[in-house]
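I hope you will forgive my troubling you with a question about protein structure. Could you please explain, in whatever detail you think fit, how the structure tokens follow from the sequence? Thank you for your consideration; the sequence and its tokens are set out here.
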Amino acid sequence: MPTEVQIQVSPEVAASPLLLKDFLAKLTRVSPSEIKHFSILKRSIDARQRAIKINLKVVVFFTDDEIVEQEITLPNYKDVRLAPEAIVVGAGPAGYFAALQLIELGVKPIVLERGKDVRARRRDLKAINQEHIVNPESNYCFGEGGAGTYSDGKLYTRSKKRGDVNRALEVLVAFGASKEILVDAHPHIGTNKLPGIMAAMREKIIEFGGQVLFETKLVDFIIKGNQIEGVVLENGDKIAAKKVILATGHSARDIYELLDRKQVLIEAKPFALGVRAEHPQTLIDSIQYSCDFRGEFLPPAPYSIVKQVNGRGMYSFCMCPGGIIAPCATAPGEVVTNGWSPSKRDQPTANSGIVVELRLEDFKPFAKHGALAGMEFQKAIEQQAFKIAGSTQRVPAQRMVDFSKKIVSAEIPKTSYVPGTTSIELGEVFPGFLTETMRQGFVEFGKSMKGYFTNEAILHAPESRTSSPVRIPRDDFSLEHPQIKGLYPCAEGAGYAGGIISAAIDGEKCAIKLAQSLLT
């Protein structure tokens, strides 16, 4: 019968089916010819020792065994053309997973997306990179697929309590992602692969009777008493619906402002903010793999680091091996950085957000804005960075050691950030407490990762959109807003998720609760 084994092998053996088969044959005490087939179920890298090993969970099929491979198929979707309707605001992972779940349960989703379809978005991304033009409705954050589509496509979540991670991964595979995401300990798709997957999801929604409306911006909610009755669009049209999933992402500031104006309960939420640090990938490889050259059998090395500095957490965020830094502003007059990698992670640089945890008391200078205080704190830093770097999409930048020593870098080399950099003492961008925490923190990082603290590393400011600065509350059981019946705050924009997978899972959870309420 098939046998599952946990093994640890060299990177060379893990990369060669022939060598791996020989290894498995010796382990199971059979000849290689007696192994009919084998499949890798899980894979991770153990780089704790100088001799790096690959951990594998493998199922081995022998000569007389029947080969049973996991078949990945889509759920049984229903034709919902004549079904009860619900509105889904936002066509990111949360919105699309919610829409597909609604179809599976017999509800017709009407997906409203302020931005463009995933292919049309590319022109606006080119404009922000090359011409420094920010389209507030179509950028790295807004448009089909949301912020995740033109990101690294990381698919892991730290929380196992959010829901069925494997189901979300399998849905992505069914829509075109590689099966490798079911195997790798830290799976990612890559920004070059995600657009096609999101387009396939949209086509499936439409095929079964749902609607996806692009360049369709919500500007108001229709609320009667404590019940949602529909939405108002920018062109004046109204769409009636007693159920609305609000999956607008963490950068839809106008939605927070709208809710605040309408006196719909929202809350300021702590988040983290800092810089995006870029190193040569070869340097990170040498630190993480303890070698001069990683060779052809190891992937570009990631890193993850956390320190307590001045009583605050300072940590790496959204680390992108073999990636680039992108301009992620969502309005003119601000600069924002983020990072992404292609599926091969084959760029010469590695980058990561390095951020410091913020507390509600840090927002006191903006207290007059109430629940929007954190958002205004965030906005002020982005606008200050824009102003001092030259009022374009160039970002303030400084070499890492120079930053810690308060030295303006004499020269900034070309980095992966296409719009360019301006040499600035980054203390001019951030409040003093944040600056001093980062100055000390980078020194501490260097003690844990020998070679990390170097002037080869370039800091780009700011990395400010780590998560929503606002929470839209909801009932723990019904997932509805406690004040507005039929309104389902969802995923990152509401403060309940932190990445593609957690957003997708939260979208499904909201859809299930909505369908239960609507159809019973």
About this structure: The chain has a mean pLDDT of 95. Residues 269 and 469 are 5 Å apart (CA to CA). The chain has 14 helices and 22 strands.
